[in-house]
Amino acid sequence: MSEKKRVPPWERAQLSFTLAERRRLRKVEENERPGKARLLDLEENRKRLAEIRKHFCSDCQRYIRSGQLTREEEKIGEEQGFCRCAKNVLKP
Question: Which of 12, 19, 72, 83 has CB 3.0 to 4.6 Å from 57, enough for a Cys bridge?
Fold first, then answer.
């Protein structure tokens, strides 16, 4: 029942431009300082980590079961076990 949302052409063009700009900035940065970590990658990793922490229990360091988890997070949660702390248990 989930349908793919049609993306308007101007949004696709804007995304394409943004991605091209990032590629260009990375190339310039690599040419200037090839041995150092790229700032854009660090920024993206910080954002990803912040998103992951939203679904992580601070007490037991496991995923909190919710419908917002990605497929990979759901798989990791099933393998390692989900959080069973009293504050995070789903109420029926």
Answer: 83
Longest dimension (CA), the chain: 56
pLDDT tens for each residue of 5-18: 787 888 888 889 99
How confident is the model over 35-67, as pLDDT tens digits? 566 677 788 888 888 887 777 777 777 777 777
As for how many domains the chain has, the answer is 2
User: Rounded to 10 degrees, what is the CA torsion of 90, 71, 53, 1?
Assistant: -60
Please tell me whether residues 16 and 36 are part of one structural domain.
yes
Structure tokens belonging to residue 85? 């702390």
Among residues 41, 14, 36, 49, the alpha carbon closest in space to that of 25 is found at 41
Distance CA 33, CA 20 (A): 20
Contacts of 64 (CB under 8 A, 6+ apart): 55, 56, 57, 82, 83, 88
